[in-house]
Amino acid sequence: MVLTDIIVDIIYLFMMVLVWTKLFSLGSGQIGGFVLNDYIMYYIISMLIVMFYPAIENYFSSDVNNGNLVIYLIRNLNPMIRYYFFSMGSDIFEIISMSIIFIISSIYFGYFIISKILLFLVFLIIAILLTSLFRALVSLIAVKTQRIGGVMGTIFLTMSFLSGSWIPLNLFPDIVQKIFYFLPFQYMRYFPAITYLGKTNTSQLVFGFLISILWIITFYFLFKFLYKKAIKSFEGQGG
Q1: Cα-atom radius of gyration of the chain, to the nearest Å?
Q2: How many angstroms separate the CA atoms of 231 and 192, rounded?
Q3: How far apart are CA 91 and CA 2, in angstroms?
Q4: Cβ-count burial of 26 within 10 angstroms (0-12 exposed, 13-18 middle, 19+ buried)?
Q5: Are 94 and 2 in contact, with CB atoms under 8 Å apart?
Q6: Which pTM does this prediction carry?
Q7: Under a CB-based contact definition with an 8 Å cutoff, are residues 41 and 109 in contact?
Q8: For residue 79, what are the domain limits?
Q9: Domain count, the chain
Q10: 3-class secondary structure, 21
Q11: What is the per-residue pLDDT across 33-90, written as a single tens digit (0 to 9) for each?
């Protein structure tokens, strides 16, 4: 299963390289302010970032449906942190393989600069916190309904699109890009990637940092509030 996932990742990356190579062969030397190497590295970084995103909602939904959530309630524990590390443990080989591809590609294309690496790590941590909290919020739907696959699928497809997974956000009109700056989604994937590529200036970095921290705080307190209500509802259903 792990080997299959790694092979799928490599095939997807290879397809993206072919697509963008073809697009650049038909046009000018830049598309949306990016050169070909930028887009190749963008998808590598994007794929690396998503490796750190935990499937919190799957674990939580499973524990709600089979009743194992009661164990955490009895011990007065929040299960979300455990879910995160469970997820990371299952994806560790994918993370390692994609990290190797990231490092080799960065060196080959000339992006491997210590200052960029450190700045990228800062926004990677922010992206992990932001995405984990968002997915934890979404997972609370499982308390209300057992069949959450369709709802979550729609939410995560939307999140994936708005975070720049399919289409880099720099290809959208300027007015749309300005709206994206105030939403949390681009800080989950797009912003860390373009930061590493050197496509952000100081004011954008500061603004992006402050907005993303504000969203993290908002999601955190919103989760705490809704988690308490969800647990009360779960206890009522099970009681």
Answers
A1: 19
A2: 34
A3: 8
A4: exposed
A5: yes
A6: 0.87
A7: yes
A8: 2-238
A9: 1
A10: helix
A11: 899 999 999 999 999 998 888 777 777 777 777 767 777 766 666 777 777 777 777 7
